[in-house]
Amino acid sequence: MQNSRLFHIGFASALLISALARPANAQGFGTIVGTATGKSGDQSLTVNVSRSVQQHDSRNINTPGTDTHSTMAHYTSRAEWEARKAHLRRQILSAAGLFPMPDRTPLHPQIFGRLEREGYSIEKVLLETLPGYYLGGNLYRPTGRSGKLPAVLNPHGHWPYGRLENESLDSNPSFGISLARQGYVVFAWDMVGYNDTLQTPHAFGNATEQLWSFGPLGLQLWNSIRALDFVLSLDVDPARVGIAGASGGATQTLLLDAVDDRIQYAAPANMVSFIMQGGDGCENTPGLRLGTNNVEIAAMFAPKPMIMPAATGDWTRNMLKEELPAVREIYDLYDARENVKAFILDAPHNFNKENREAVYQFFGAHILKDPDGTSYHEKNVKIEMLQHMLALQGRTLDANALTYDQLFAEWKKIAVDQLETAKSRGELQDRLRAVLAVEWPGKVLMEKRQERLVLSRPGAGDRVPGIWIEGRGDPVLVVHPQGAAAALQSPEVSDLRKLGRPILLIDAFQTGTAEAPRDRSVHNFLTFNQPDDACRVQDILTALSFIKSTHEGKIELLGLGTASVWATFAAAVAPIPLDLKATLGGFRGTDEDFLRSFNVPGIQRAGGLAAAQRVNSGAGQDMARR
Q: How many other CB atoms are found less than 10 A from the CB of residue 234?
């Protein structure tokens, strides 16, 4: 191995067994990089150890944000990409608070206030996307046509009038009317806090609400899914359903494309960018873009037809030289390069007439199968008065409409009900792994000097310092909230040393020698970076994987003080049986407990302490029968 050094490590009775000295077990657990030497019975092992552990933890110095100039990994096979795509879909749904999905309760669609115009009609719509929660919108339909019609969904961006904006840089009514004239059924609906969708403000999601993944992004993505449910309940052709939105509407387009396979054609306008990922709160939520960006999320639509409009005057200005080539690499894996296009205007940020007409022509060629784009132009569009378009003009919501606090309570109730009805331990583990964004490393790198060592995951750039104490018998991993040196002085470790057990003490993230400045100044830090407590769970898993690869016997995981909470969640997501010793003290799993001792957004939505304890007790094997 290149760039390696030899260290002589004294371990008792060959407790440290190299991956190359014995076959990996059936679960493919992590391995130290090295080879074993020495005579039978020797109490030492010479290990060829990788020097690829970084000198500084990348989680402190590589902290991307909304405006970081990001890149996209290269994928060499369709299978590799499909695995990545499945991971990203789960990440998006978990961040949005939709993993698992809530029940799709009846929408009780109210369609009223029909306006008859030449070649099209416009109606007002109210949908009950959750019991007592209403989404407003407009339905544009062609007149004089029969049969199953194509459909286009139209989420809007952050222009002042939302779905009803009509100015030179954006006109959603012009878009709906023009598409209806071309033969499409079109549904345009509100962002939360706009026009008729007013049971929440547009900006919300305090620290407590974040524990439950209750925020505008998740609610908007849910509304998008239910809007698609509504459109497909109409007389439309499910094989010819597209979506087009600009700016914040493009963010909604990208996310719906990523999680719902029913969309067949897409036009995310002026949002697919490596240099800006969406600045509004409804375009961000903790955990959404860990290790990814809008370009990779857009590529999840491959191989289906997609056009990406861009402009020289905004963050999509590099489309032709950066974003389009990256997305095409994914389409090439499906031999579908011609299905992805880009269109760039010399203009500021917009969804103007030229931009919209490029979408008409793309949809015309792909959905209507008409290569002649000359007929797809806006002509003589009459914009209706606002009172003729607003669903709540002279009307109130039904009596069951929830207040903001009641809606939050309903969102929490969904999570609690889903915890109670979970059918297996594996379901709960999946939810916890997703919200913590942690992994069981397939390999662990190690550097060691005397009793001090540092562990790292290949390619991750993280560092887990520790102290190794030699011994015999089943190994113990000890985690202390002040790190390894503090653990070494604890009575618990003193007792273990008297027993002669092999012990690994670690400095979990931001404890002990791992304490270091972490740049949190970037915009939307938690959208792109794991919280400290989730990093600590990852470090425990890394240490467990290392011990498992080098020692026989069941591992004891001992969490001391606040670290008992970290250990509890690490044990819950670990794929191996552990002997967990964690006294939680006053930690009962309340919102206040999590905010004080384990502040991981989404953790309550994933089941919280109850889910972790059920997994650790083994009681999740058949919980549906309880």
A: 15
Distance CA 595, CA 611 (A): 17
Q: Is-cis flag, bond preceding 216, omega within 30?
A: no
Q: What b/e sequence results for 372-386 when a residue is b if at least 16 CB atoms lie within 10 Å of its CB, and e otherwise? A: eeeebebeeeeeeee
At 288, phi and psi to the nearest 5? -65, -45
DSSP state letters, 2-44: -SEEEEEE--GGG-S--TTTS---TT-----S----S-TT-S-
- Is 0.90 topped by the overall pTM? yes
Nearest to 248 by CA among 209, 276, 287, 222: 276
**Contact at 8 Å (CB) between 355 and 171?**
no
387-390, Cβ contacts within 8 angstroms, sequence gap of 24 or more: 388/113, 388/115, 388/122, 389/122, 389/124, 389/138, 389/164, 389/173, 390/124, 390/136, 390/164, 390/195, 390/196
DSSP letter assigned to residue 102: P
The DSSP annotation for 418-456 comes to HHHT---HHHHHHHHHHHHT----S--EEEEETTEEEEE
| Contact in structure between 369 and 150 (CB atoms under 8 Å) | no
| Burial class of residue 518 (count of CB atoms within 10 Å of its CB; 0-12, 13-18, 19+) | middle
Number of Cα atoms under 13 Å in the Cβ half of residue 78: 8
Q: Is 521 exposed, middle or buried (0-12, 13-18, 19+ CB in 10 A)?
A: exposed
DSSP string for 229-263: HHHHTSSEEEEEEEEEEETHHHHHHHHHHHH-TT-
3-state secondary structure of 624: helix
Question: Hunting for tokens 């009038």 — which residue is that?
Answer: 161
For residue 434, what pLDDT is reported? 98
For residue 533, the model assigns a pLDDT of 98
pLDDT of res. 3: 35
3-state class of 399 per DSSP?
A: coil
Q: What are the mean pLDDT values of the chain's consecutive 10-residue runs (626 residues total)?
A: 31 29 29 32 35 88 98 97 98 98 98 98 98 98 96 98 98 98 98 98 98 98 99 98 98 98 98 98 98 98 98 98 98 98 98 98 96 86 97 97 98 98 96 98 95 96 97 97 98 98 98 97 98 99 97 96 98 98 97 98 98 86 38
The pLDDT of residue 28 is 28
Q: Which two tokens stand for residue 481?
A: 């909230």
Q: What is the 3-state secondary structure (H, E, C) of 273-309?
A: CCCCCCCCHHHCCCCCCCCCCHHHHHHCCCCCCEEEE
Please name which of 408, 426, 369 lies closest in space to residue 607, comparing C-alpha atoms: 426
Round to whole Å and give the CA distance between 589 and 419. 14
CA torsion sign for 233, 140, 161, 284 is positive
The pLDDT score that the predictor gives to residue 51 is 54
Question: ∠352-356-357 over CA atoms, to 5°?
Answer: 120
Instruction: Report whether 162 contacts 150 (CB < 8 A).
Output: no
